[in-house]
Specification:
Layout: H1 21-41, H2 52-73, H3 76-79, H4 91-119, H5 122-149
Helix pairs in contact: 1-2, 1-4, 1-5, 2-4, 4-5
Length: 154
Amino acid sequence: MLFNDFIATTIQEVGLSWIDFYSIGHICFGVGLFLFFSLFYTIPKKKGKIPIFSLLFVFICTMVIVIAWEIVENTVFIFLDWKFEGRADSWQNITTDMIFGAIGALGSWLFAYLIFEKDKNAWGYYIFGFIGFALWLSVFIILRYITLKNSPII
């Protein structure tokens, strides 16, 4: 087995390489968490501007959960034997997982800011967010299938 330390192309490299099919799932996670938290903090009760600080707070909440997820995934899930392949992720993979979660959240933040500020349209933002989440989830499923298909049966 040749170890590809940048992009996982086989099941044995998942969680050890910088990027694997779960990395796309972390983008979905960032988008989904930001959408969820923004329900509580950014839907305007009246038509008007959304304070940028509320979106910053939503981003911070999202990142706290993204970081907490990595800690739980690589400690508790291993202890309970729920972790994929039963091994801890490499520090490279953990780092990129958090970066991809932040990218998903920042993308949602950008569109929330542009749509709320420009059109003051909460429905447009959530419809776009749901479509974006579904798109990234589809990419995740496709990449997972390709990775698993290319892996030898152990």
